[in-house]
Amino acid sequence: MLDEIPLSKPCIDDHDIDMVVGVLKSGRLSLGPMQERFERAVGNVTGRRHAVACSSGTAGLHLVLTAMGIGPGDEVVTPTFSFVASANSICMAGAKPVFVDIETKSLNADPEKIEAAITNKTKAILAVECFGNPTHMDTYRRIAEKHEIKLIEDACEGLGGKLRGVPIGSFGHAAVFGFYPNKQITTGEGGMIVTDDDHLAERCMSLRNQGRASKADAKTSAGGGALGSGWMAFERLGFNYRMNELSAALGVSQISKLHRLIEQRQELADLYTERLMGHTDLIIPNAPEGVDMSWFVFVVRLGATYTRTERDRIIEGMHRHDVGAAPYFPCIHLQKHYREHFGYREGDFPVAESVSQRTIAIPFYPGMTGRDLDFVASSLGLMISRENLSKRD
Ligand SMILES: Cc1ncc(COP(=O)(O)O)c(C=O)c1O
């Protein structure tokens, strides 16, 4: 059953709808002009020379790793506290994810732990702007340069954020954004790679399109004998990770409102902070000096005395009030695949494990009213008080 006040909700207006309907009426549902328009728009926001649209953030990460030639025998250092797709993409490329712990303020990977995890097999750092926070991105870049490895930004949660005026997406050799419906802007499903590297961009374009030449044109399908030519010639093993025109058109419309949407998310974050700040059992997220957050979700944390079971009961209680709430994120190294294939265990990354058992993501989307916010805050407060009462009994 859906919650009355959900965790997230896409912000779709008439212009978005008109743009998608326009594509439907045009009959050109794939390989049309919208993909390129959306690519140019994301390139402009991030200040990067190339933007390559693809079917999801996960696909984008897989494309970048593959295009960089990262595969079996290689290691990629990445935080355990992220959405599972960050590490899955490394496994999909055939490389080994080497997890690191996080620091407690930004919840991003601890730079010292990253440096300590680098070996002669490490080919890249896949860093995450957790919940839209770019803290440490410049440090990660320095570490990558020092060790002559690549920095890949998993920027799926951070479009529009900045660190000391520098946009998220412009720190890494390449960065990848995601546009799932809970993101700052959405294309339904979709992703975007950005980079200044001409060769990498070409490779990504080819790989997303079955391995065709990056400039292959669907109109040149004729002839070619056994090897094929034009559209029917394939230069390498590729995937179908293209973005369709309906998604791209929605992206073009959504990105034209990016600044407003981010401002609205900031206003909501400020209101939540005001309402929840006095609560002694809660740690409220905030943006440090020099950080312009692109708030993806609003995740509060219970104090150190709370257990995972207590946190889960609080979340269940909020659902009974028809309020969305979720544990963001369970550590990746403790997921079944990573325990079984790489031998990770509880206790390996104590900071991330401790944080992850006490997080609660609460409803957060433009369009939430003051009343919605009050209702969420009182539901959360009530459930915490209940938990405290039952502890005393
Ligand atoms: C940090 C991070 N990486 C990767 C992804 C994957 O993006 P997608 O769902 O578009 O494949 C997400 C999506 O939520 C994410 O939050």
What order do the helices and strands come in, and which of them pair?
Elements: H1 14-26, H2 33-46, E1 50-54, H3 57-67, E2 75-79, H4 85-92, E3 96-100, H5 111-117, E4 122-128, H6 137-146, E5 150-154, E6 162-163, E7 166-167, E8 174-178, E9 191-195, H7 198-208, H8 245-255, H9 258-276, E10 282-283, E11 291-292, E12 298-302, H10 308-320, H11 336-342, H12 350-356, E13 359-362, H13 370-392
Parallel strand pairs: 2-3, 2-4, 4-5, 5-8
Antiparallel strand pairs: 1-9, 6-7, 6-11, 8-9, 10-12, 12-13
This protein binds pyridoxal-5'-phosphate.
Q: How far apart, in Å, are the first and last alpha carbons? A: 32 Å
What is the structural class? alpha/beta
Work out the strand percent: 5-15%
CATH fold-level label of the largest domain: Aspartate Aminotransferase, domain 2
Unique bound compounds:
pyridoxal-5'-phosphate
What is the residue-averaged pLDDT? 96
Q: Which spans have pLDDT < 50 for at least 5 consecutive residues?
A: none
* Count of DSSP H/I helices: 13
- Named at the architecture level, the CATH assignment of the largest domain is 3-Layer(aba) Sandwich
Instruction: Tell me the strand order in the biggest sheet.
Output: 1-9-8-5-4-2-3
What is the overall shape?
Answer: globular
